[in-house]
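User: Hello! My lab partner asked me to get a predicted holo structure for this protein. The small molecule is S-adenosylmethionine, SMILES included with the sequence. Please write out the structure tokens.
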Amino acid sequence: MTPKQLSATLDILNSALGFNAPADAVVSRHFRENKDLGHKDRAVIAETVFSMLRHLPQLEWIAGSTEARLASTRELLLAYFTRIKHLNVRELPSVFTDEDKERAGAMKGMALRDAPLNVRAAMPQWLVDAMLAEGQTEEQVLAMGLAMLQSAPLDIRVNSIKAKREAVAAELKAAGDINTMPTPYSPWGLRVEGKPAINKYKCFIEGRVEVQDEGSQLLGLLSGVKRGQMVTDFCAGAGGKTLLLGAMMQNTGRLYAFDVSEKRLANLKPRLARSGLSNVNPQLIASETDQKIKRLAGKMDVVLVDSPCSGMGTLRRNPDLKMRQSAASVTELNEKQRAILKSASRLVKNGGRLVYATCSFLQSENQAIVREFLASHPDFQLLDARELLAKERVEIALQDEYLQLTPAQHQTDAFFAAVLQRVSAEKAKAQEESAMLSAEDEAAE
Ligand SMILES: C[S@@+](CC[C@H](N)C(=O)[O-])C[C@H]1O[C@@H](n2cnc3c(N)ncnc32)[C@H](O)[C@@H]1O
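Assistant: Hello! Below are the structure tokens for the protein in complex with S-adenosylmethionine.
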């Protein structure tokens, strides 16, 4: 690492470790304000910052952080070079003094296997406590933590109204010698080798591809949207899922894209223009109970709730989130999740589908929200994601009726989805009675 790269890394870390803004925003701002940093400098700096954020609980332990004494950024960097990059004392950048080098020797001797679980899993204590309280074992916590230390692959989704997957793969190979592989589950996905700047390529500029994790792409299949339907993407944000749903609808029907964030919806506009979709109606709402929503009650074939969540499933990409969230922020999100799901459900017509999704592995944001909703909404039933995906010829290992993806098992972000279907209240009651009767018959036999 050159002195220039090192000094920029320290500057960025000093801001990012305040956790007042997302780390990727801090990095982008620094690069915007320091135009002298070249392409290679930027790659080295970003890689170092994100890798340090991923390993932060380990680095803090190695650098001797305690509640009473927080390690300095420089000490954390020393711990990173010594223990994560495995540099020996002679290879350390010249800014480190002889005293630092002596420290580095001591750091090398610290045995991580003797460290507390949260250090070994590189997770903050609140997250480990939450996972253990939900019944995860220490091994499961450790496996999830270690999987989140890897950097995520770059997945793109081919816009099916503009191109075919094979043609885009050939185009990227010809344009930039970029190698891709079809994603194992999504029929529209390509996993891109290396991390080329896809947004510089014609296929991106002309809307044939969008960057999208394969897990998110599977939501499209679970939604089951079809041509000509009435569909709502309730938390559309910058429209990652909206664009997918619109393409699956083959630019027909009507697709409402709601969100409470004007800024996020504004980011959807250029993506929509590139995509060639004209069936999307973006609408800013004041809250989940906005009047605009009430007018659409009972009219939707499909409603997707890609709910605001802790983002714990995306820690490979956004490692600082584990330090920016807390037990209290998750509890606050749970309130929001309940309220949004309840409101969004009112839009679904009889026989229609409601898909609830998060990019979190915490059950409190996932199964618990869905179970609570089902208990108070007998007119909704849980469909089995395994059956729905099998019908789409997707062979995927899932534990139960929920879609629950993990980086270790599926090479995607940790992603959750539950698919619910609205049945009439009478039908739900009749089904419940018949289930009770058969249970009684079985008991009698
Ligand atoms: C997980 S993000 C959505 C990402 C988006 N679907 C995509 O694929 O790019 C959650 C979104 O929910 C929005 N949101 C938060 N509170 C909301 C509410 N009460 N009603 C609707 N959307 C809300 C946030 O602004 C955020 O854009």
